Amino acid sequence: MPTYAQNTDVTSEKSRSEIERTLSRYGARQFMYGWDEARAIVGFALDGRQVRFVLPMPDRKDRTFTHTPDRGLERTAAAQEKAYEQAVRQRWRALSLVIKAKLEAVEAGIVTFDEEFAMHFLLPSGRTVGEHVLPQIEEAYASGTVPALLPGGDR
Asked: 2 falls in which pLDDT band (50, 70, 90)?
């Protein structure tokens, strides 16, 4: 399956700026951005909620960037950097798309803001709802304690 925006020439900076403008257009009152080698973080406040998205960054040392895909030859340092930057641009485009789509779904009345963004809400602990809840969901499925989807049916 093709990767969304895999060949984009839109810079990461332009995508971040687009995210900020989109959030502002939909009523965000605060915006923040930060990064380290492994991830970038976008946070904002909207509808009385604090929201944080963590965007995992690719590993520069991954063979995807250090070697050619077809023959497995080692790339030059410049070619490695170009391949890595392309992957970073793609991820920023995808995050921009996700945020826009979520906000548009809320605007169209398909879902509520809380339904669409809840997993990214910040809790008093500094963790997101997803960071808190997802391990519990994984445990429920692993242990088989999740009820059947349809009443009277099998799991």
From this structure: confident
Q: Is residue 71 part of a domain?
A: yes
Distance CA 110, CA 112 (A): 7
- For residue 132, the SS3 value is helix
Q: Quote the number of domains for the chain.
A: 1
47: left (phi over 0), alpha (psi -120 to 50) or beta: left
Q: Is 155 part of a structural domain of the chain?
A: no
pTM: predicted TM-score of the whole model, two decimal places: 0.88
Residue 58: burial class (beta carbons within 10 Å; 0-12, 13-18, 19+): middle
Measured between alpha carbons, how far is 46 from 27 in angstroms, rounded to an integer? Answer: 6
Mean pLDDT score of the chain: 94
Alpha-carbon gap, residue 104 to 65, rounded angstroms: 35
CA distances from 71 to 62, 64, 68, 86, 105 (A): 16, 12, 6, 20, 43
Report the C-alpha gap between 125 and 68 in whole angstroms.
Answer: 44
Beta strands at 30-35 and 39-46: parallel, antiparallel or unpaired = antiparallel
1 lies in a domain?
Answer: no
